[in-house]
User: Fold this.
Amino acid sequence: MFHNEIESTIKSAELTKSTEPAKSTEPAESTESIESTIESSRARRVVLKISGECFCPPNERGISMSSVSILANQVAVVARKGIQIAIVMGGGNILRGGQFKAANIGIQESTAHYMGMLATVINGLALQDAIELVGQPTRLMSAFAMDVVAETYIRRRAMRHLEKGRIILLAGGTGSPFVTTDTAAAQRALELSADVLLKATKVDGVYSDDPERNPQAVFYPEIPYEDILKQNLRIMDKESIAKCAEHNMPIMIFNFRRQGNLERALMGERVGTLIS
Ligand code: UDP
Assistant:
């Protein structure tokens, strides 16, 4: 059963309840049991955070369509298997607000963050074409109005796209400055009731220290949210970890450059580090 059908069942049940007393002696189906039907019947749904660095070769900037099409192919293969995929794009391959402000005294910090948000729209447009080139339908949705290139994000519409098998590309972060797309990804994972938040990065998962600088760094296959926050491990924004912890949203961090990792993670296999 699809969400909208269930929602209209809930609505009509509620309407009946408010206008006349129940005539049947059979116990009415409780909202709780309808909700558990939703949970058990719906397809796996994931929110995938793709950092800007996935849009270009290692140590480069900008957009390389060959990097983008590698991503697009992997995502499309999994979507064809019925997994519902929402992608939150980063923009760091083009511009990060904080860094840009630090290097340019003539710009206000908020302006720089809005520029960063626009960078995610550029990545979204590239990824959209690459995914559709391999035959998978998509919708690009922006956190702020940009009608000519993207639909404005509306949660219920986003859910409908997912149910119809469209990959949704969520651009513009949260639409507000001073945060990053990690926070947007946590926010969307929660409001879209995703099963998991996946973060594709260039490292294998969570380590006790930066593995690129410290060869003694210890890898954690799994780690509680609290330990990430206590040890100040910088794998994601603190806000996004705290938000997921508060609502028990599992996060999986994995290396997107290792062959097969992205598909395996999307399909529900354990790769990288599970934070829960
Ligand atoms: N950004 C923002 N609000 C948001 C999301 C992003 O202001 O909700 C800006 C911020 O300046 C950020 C930039 O957009 O640095 C690009 O996003 P991010 O740094 O998350 O990209 P990534 O590191 O994942 O490539």
Q: What stands out?
A: The pocket of uridine-5'-diphosphate is lined by residues 51-52, 90-92, 96-98, 113, 116-117, 119-120, 173-174, 176-177, 179-184 (CB under 6 Å). The domain at 44-275 is CATH 3.40.1160.10 (Carbamate kinase). The CA atoms of residues 68 and 127 lie 6 Å apart. The two ends are 29 Å apart (CA to CA).
